[in-house]
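User: Second chain of the day. Same drill as before.
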Amino acid sequence: MKPEHQKYLENYLQQFSHLTPEELELLQSQLSIKEYGQKEFFFESGEVQTTMGYVSKGLLRRYYINDKGKSITTGFVKENEYATDYPAFIRQKPSKYHMECLEPCTIILLSYKDIQQGYEQFKSNERYGRLIAEQVLTIQTDRTESFLFETAEERYLNFVKNHPELLNRVSLTHLSSFLGIERQSLSRIRSKIAKK
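Assistant: Same format as last time:
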């Protein structure tokens, strides 16, 4: 195993300090790590996602293709976040989304089967599933509410405030799609803010 992979696994396991040595050993034995190239897919629409991914390095984009054939960005997954379509994953149903690497990525993998085995063997392992579900649900709810209660400019300003590290890593095309506005509108908003 590459030294940096070992370091990523160690960093990942630090969040499970609540586990007993036996539980930690089981989890550790179930993890694998994989490198993905830029533009490679973690999973694609129509596939059943059989493996949960935790991003140690890199950036992914979650999107779907609408009825007009246009790609609509619904999220970005960066370091220390889970790459998943969680509702489809827990039901083992085909995803409606594509999850594509915008940068070369290193992802820690844990299969659905192994997650279920962990739940059966150790009751406290259910906390793992709850933590993932909470993180994913919070991100999705924040996005939905931003469309209900915020203007395009407010959505952009909140993105800048909450994800400053992504501004230079995400294209304007993907960002405008994520914010639900045309690229020209995003350019206008940016220049208006720059003049303030």
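The two ends are 51 Å apart (CA to CA).

User: Great, on to the next one.
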